[in-house]
Write a structure and sequence with these properties.
228 residues; six-stranded mixed sheet
Amino acid sequence: MSRLAVLERVSRHFGSGVTRVEALRDVSLVLEQGILTLVSGPSGSGKTTLLSIVGMLLPPSEGRVSIAGQSVEHLTPEGLSDVRLRSIGFVFQAFRLLSALSLEENVELPLNLAGIRRPASRDRARELVAALGLAHRGRLRPDALSGGEKQRVAIARALANDPPLLLADEPTGSLDARSGHEVIQLLHQAAHHDGRAVLVVSHDERLRPFADRLLSLEDGVLRDSAGA
């Protein structure tokens, strides 16, 4: 299997002196192709910080990070942005769809940022929206959608540039049972059918049966979950 993300002895702290907070402590992690990794833990345990470092939205205070075989610590901001755009898809609990754009246009946006123009970008967006069962809703704006539909659009947007690495931050946290199950199935498919490395951080117990690897994070320390 291909190692799509590698963290080596990564730590991250905020502040200094008596206000210093250790968000991550000496974390090592490998994310491999075709594997869905679930990291659970209480609020404030460091889950979002971990995801932000893997997604290169936040640099580590110590340690090394490699994405798709490329060490990222010496990349310029432009270089980091390019790796994120082409190698990483993000899914957030709050969806983060642009309300002024239609479903298809939201999915099309990362393609345009990567230099792909119409008609190719529009065709790709429509293909993804249709694959997630929303072809009949493609011209609607996010306000017209249910929470589950918004999250499916967010997943389509994350997959637009066919990234090998998919990161999801509490992707089912605001969804009902049915919508949450649909989103879990899509993330599972992204790993097992599409061959992506998928990292999900969540406290949602519904995700556990679908994970290939179960980890826990508490007080910034990452461990294999008991029984995993």
